[in-house]
Amino acid sequence: MTEKIRDGSNGDVAVDQQNRYKEDVAIMKEIGMDAYRFSISWSKILPNGKLSGGKNQAGIDYYNNLLKELQDKGLEPFVTLFHWDLPQALEDEYGGFLSPKIVVHFLEYADFCFKTFGDRVKNWITVNEPWAYCYGGYVTGALAPGRCSVPSKHVGGVLGWGRYSCWQQLSFSNGEDLANNETFCLVNDQIHAHARGRRQPRHIGGDSGREPYTVAHNQLLAHAAVVKLYNQNYKASQKGKIGITNVTNWMIPYSESKKDHDAAQRAIDFMFGWFMDPLTTGDYPQNMRNLVGSRLPQFTAEQSAMVKGSFDFIGLNYYTARYVVDAPNTSTDNPSYITDPQIEFRRVDERDNPSILAACVDKHRIKYFYDHLSLVQKAIKDGVKVKGYFAWSLLDNFEWSEGYTVRFGINYINYKDGLKRHPKLSSIWFKMLLKST
Predict the structure, then answer these.
(1) In this structure, is the dihedral angle defined by the CA atoms of residues 100, 103, 106 and 112, taken in order, positive or negative?
(2) Rounded to an integer, what distance in angstroms lies between the CA atom of residue 351 and that of residue 261?
(3) What is the CATH number of the domain that holds 169?
């Protein structure tokens, strides 16, 4: 569905790490990194999603080769099992994460990974950013599998907020526009692009008022089942740890009013709490129960007990903060995850992407990492048990619906010259930082 990709590209080759992994590991070593976080593609090793459908030995060999190279160079692998690349066969058969059947097949896939790679992998992540998978795949339809209620309704609802914008307009708490720093949210840009007529989204049905909650529920159950399997069958012998990586923005009340403070809490509950509360309490936030009602799935007592505490560690992908205002009139006759929280966000202006030269002299990225690492250091001093920090990302790469039009890497990829890697200023900064610590 390349019509969903901003530049009409695809990820078939991307940055070709499959053939250049030794070069990329050498880059990590040169910078001074001691760990590398990457994902195993479910489809790459089990093309049909099931062991009964056959294995792809070439894919398995690639991950074995990568793990050996990391081991030889002294880098610790942190491996994610699911980063949104569901085998198409399972989507076609029963709708993927819309069905509870996914738990059995995700468990089978994870079991295969533990058996095959677990002697070298001591840190496992079950799912990366389950919120983003639900939101992009089932609320806006901007990401695979591209399901949503009729997009025009959502766009109208979002843009109908006037000077406000949707979930994905981002700004620092000090008001700095992240769009100028290459880290504005992909989904929001796509929604506005559709509204401006740049391209019309292709969607394949869906219900943005129900399906995101169903998919989130099944992701949590699949995660918990895999953690239970690892703890029972592998932890003692492999001596590893397992967790999940969530994503959130911090939500700031736009005013000092109680209504805006309550709205900010609802925003947190509908993003961070949606997954963190079940992991720590066994159920969804009360705000979600109150506002979503019967559309929000229920955990059985057994499921609640299995999900609660199902982690050795929590990964947190954090990008920015947003201002939130109370919006009690955003609910509609056609419920949607967008309107359920009854909140709105202050809008920031979009700006053009920087030039190639500016992409390599990326002082804004250095400031971004410096500010975040400073606060991580403060959190550690305050007693938070922070075990590590991963910067996104090592290389420019294929960025989902944005294709190759945005560059998040600390190393520049020249897509017009054989995918040559070039260090950006931020890469040099990281090297100096790591040498000084």
Answers:
(1) negative
(2) 30
(3) 3.20.20.80
